[in-house]
Write a structure and sequence with these properties.
Layout (H helix, E strand, L loop, with lengths): L10 H5 L2 E6 L3 H12 L4 E4 L8 H4 L11 H4 L5 H6 L9 H14 L6 E2 L4 E7 L4 E6 L4 E9 L21 E4 L14 E5 L3 H10 L5 E6 L6 E2 L7 H9 L1 H10 L18 H13 L4 H5 L8 H18 L3 H6 L14 E2 L2 H4 L5 E5 L5 E4 L3 E4 L3 E3 L2 E4 L8 H4 L3 E2 L6 H4 L18 E3 L10 H21 L4 E4 L1 H14 L30 H13 L5 E4 L9
Parallel strand pairs: 1-2, 1-6, 2-3, 4-17, 6-18, 7-16, 8-9, 8-16, 9-12, 10-11
Antiparallel strand pairs: 4-5, 5-6, 13-14, 14-15, 19-20
The chain binds 3-acetylpyridine adenine dinucleotide.
């Protein structure tokens, strides 16, 4: 590596269109753009959609909403936004979230730095001048020193392939690309494939308007009540005045949620005390059970089975038909081994006369026909088929961008056996590619996890700028240590084989653990430690505009 240190912060930027390109105008990318502005980087944000919000721009199916309390999901800076914005419910709906992100970009005049309808189709690193050249689907080309991917961990919809899908003459749609104008489901015969969080939210939202709903379920989930409700004006004021304390709490909890981490183990309590605690969790709001059940609920199989059995009893007590209830109870994984959906009337919907549950383990889909779906038991006719079949999570967006690092190495090939990152923010051999939300760095309440990454990446780029560097690369040994640390934390997720946590939902994808499961406080601590030690594990250099790196 030829490296000479220059004092000019922006010499390289002169030969590039921008110092920084950000990919994605979701919750993470918009925050990164805001931080870029604060530091006066020359920046452009490339967004595939025609509007902002990311997840909350694309997933506009009926009843799409967060299961993080809205006031823990929004931004904590800038302060004016906290003062001005009122959340109307504990868990915000898609329209409210989309409005929130639009207010953010409008208030802070971020829109002028965003290129819409610009899906990144190719991003190639050049050693000459240490530059990324990025091409977008609208035929434009951009060059920049740094390419920051805020492309999301659940942003690439997955469509399973069934024979005959192109022959179906009715309407098909995916929850993650729901049409802007909505879908008229009134009086229609509707099929829904998939019972993850999206399917579980959709079922009760549409059951009363459709003529019939057939739910094709491959694996049931341990869904628990969301217990959403409206926020009164007094509650909003209370939340507003408590923001500083709330933020401190969110910094402390492992998931970046309101919910405190349990400290007691399950069998430290009597049967009666456990039962009372489980009831309390069932009646509580949001993701509480994931964090506040018992400290060993995910690590001790007996503790996990105890809580899972409580949930199974709840399902049996709500769903009147015992056979349907049994089909809705997971048999292959315990609570928390897959990401649990939060529900509002999901199990109750199965008591309606116009719903049918097809267990795909007994009756797999054989093909789509021109008028419906043929499964092993029979053929059913539909007007609409809805895919709620999830995402190519964590790596999908990054491996679809045509990213080529040093020597033209492609990221999708480099990660063919699973992601390899340093701190979840950099990939050895892909200089100046920085990741704000991706594999091995993201966990829990996404905005709280992503802000740790954004703040770190902002500091890293500022460190390079102020030292006259224009090349940042992660050392391979540092990435090896990080990857080992990530996998060490994942050991108790042994029953997650079918989950997007491990790529288990995507045929042919490497089955490797993808989130960062040690919790956000430990993640923040590790990133701070690296920053405080001169960004240990990173290699910095200055590459002159016309000089090749040797
Ligand atoms: O996707 P999923 P999702 N044949 O992967 C099934 C977040 N989110 O969009 O489990 C038949 O969970 C698949 O079956 P199986 C949240 O983090 C949050 O629902 O693989 N079925 C499964 O049932 C969530 O976890 C909210 O056997 C097939 C479903 O499709 C994440 O996004 C709301 C199939 C996919 O479930 C993903 O949720 C929505 C096939 N070939 C989403 N392939 C909030 O509440 C897949 N399936 C905030």
């Amino acid at each position: 590596m030829t490296a000479s240190v220059h004092s000019s912060e922006t010499e390289n930027a002169k030969s590039a269109d921008y110092e920084v390109l950000i990919v994605g105008a979701g919750v993470t990318g918009l925050y990164q753009l805001h931080r870029a502005r604060e530091h006066r980087w020359s920046v452009r944000l490339l967004e595939a959609g025609s509007g902002v919000g990311g997840t909350w721009y694309w997933n506009r199916y009926p009843a799409a909403r967060t299961d993080s309390e809205a006031y823990t999901y929004g931004y904590f800076t800038p302060k004016e936004l906290l003062a001005e914005w009122n959340w109307t419910e504990h868990f915000a709906s898609q329209p409210e979230l989309e409005a929130y992100f639009n207010k953010f970009v409008n208030d802070y005049d971020l829109r002028r730095d965003i290129e819409f309808d610009a899906r990144v189709v190719s991003a190639v690193y050049s050693e000459v001048g240490s530059l990324w050249t990025v091409t977008t689907s609208n035929g434009k080309k951009f060059t920049a020193t740094y390419l920051i991917a805020a492309s999301g961990v659940l942003s690439v919809p997955f469509y399973p392939s069934f024979p005959g899908t192109d022959t179906f003459r009715g309407l098909t749609c995916h929850t993650a690309t729901w049409p802007r104008d909505g879908v008229d489901l009134a009086g229609k015969r509707v099929a829904l494939i998939g019972t993850g969080s999206s399917g579980v939210q959709l079922v009760p939202a549409i059951i009363d308007e459709v003529q019939s709903l057939t739910v094709y379920q491959r694996t049931p989930n341990w869904a628990m009540p969301l217990n959403n409700c409206a926020l009164s004006a007094a509650e909003q004021e209370e939340i507003r005045s408590g923001y500083p304390a709330l933020y401190e709490r969110l910094q402390r909890t492992s998931g970046g949620f309101l919910h405190e981490d349990a400290t007691k183990n399950a069998f430290d309590d009597t049967v009666e005390a456990r039962r009372a605690h489980y009831e309390d969790l069932w009646n509580g709001r949001g993701m509480r059970a994931m964090f506040s059940t018992y400290a060993d609920v995910l690590t001790n199989p007996a503790a996990n089975a105890d809580f899972s059995e409580f949930l199974a009893q709840k399902i049996r007590s709500i769903v009147k038909d015992p056979e349907t209830a049994d089909k809705l109870i997971p048999k292959d994984h315990g609570f928390g081994m897959k990401r649990p959906p939060l529900e509002t009337g999901y199990y109750e919907a199965y008591n309606k006369p116009n719903i049918e549950l097809v267990d795909l383990r007994e009756n797999p889909i054989l093909r789509f026909t021109t008028t419906g779906i043929e499964s092993a038991d029979t053929t059913r006719e539909f007007d609409v088929i809805i895919y709620a079949t999830g995402f190519d999570a964590f790596t999908g967006a990054l491996t679809r961008m045509g990213i080529r690092g040093l020597n033209g190495v492609s990221l999708e090939k480099y990660w063919a056996e699973g992601p390899f990152t340093y701190l979840g923010v950099a990939v050895p051999g892909f200089p100046n590619l920085l990741i704000d939300s991706g594999p091995h760095g993201t966990f829990g309440n996404i905005p709280r996890s992503a802000e740790v990454q954004v703040d770190f990446v902002t500091g890293l780029v500022n460190h390079a700028r102020s030292n006259g560097f224009n090349l940042i690369d992660a050392a391979e040994a540092a990435a090896e240590d990080w990857t080992a640390h990530v996998y060490e934390g994942a050991q108790h997720f042994a029953q997650s084989a079918g989950s997007w946590y491990v790529g288990g939902n995507i045929p042919g994808k490497a089955k490797k653990f993808l989130p960062y499961s040690w919790g956000i406080p430990i993640y923040r601590e590790k990133l701070n430690e690296v920053a405080n030690n001169g960004y240990r594990g990173f290699r910095f250099a200055h590459v002159a505009a016309e000089a090749a790196v040797s």
